[in-house]
Request: fold
Amino acid sequence: MARTDDTNNDRDMLLLSQQLCFALYSTAHAFNRAYKPLLAPLGLTYPQYLVMLVLWEADDLTVKEIGARLQLDSGTLTPLLKRLEAAKLVERVRDTVDERQVHIKLTESGRALRRKAEGIPKKMAQAVGRPIPDIVALREELSQLRASMDAVAD
Reply:
């Protein structure tokens, strides 16, 4: 019976082309490049778009709540929020009871921007080039993978 050479298999696993992490990393960069021309007319970067998606779903959230949804710490999130505030898309309001808490609220301009963004998901789905059920299944698989990796990292 032929035996596979584990040493060669181990070496092959160190090829960049064999790395799942690199496939995900490079795909994330490709997504960012695809989003860039769609978001430019809105004056948003991809991370700012993610913040706006969260707020369009549920307005008046704390920085902590937004960070939890996006899996970002406040050190990363605060500069994004300051830029969105400078663009007059959101306002940051200190909680009157607990001044450590900062609420993020959409401005009228921030709410209006949602209508301008409505076609972006469809354009991105077309760019993916797969039927919607396949995209949904892939998203679910990636969510499960993230949960597995989160469990290992914690």
Summary: The beta strands are 61-62, 90-94, 102-106.
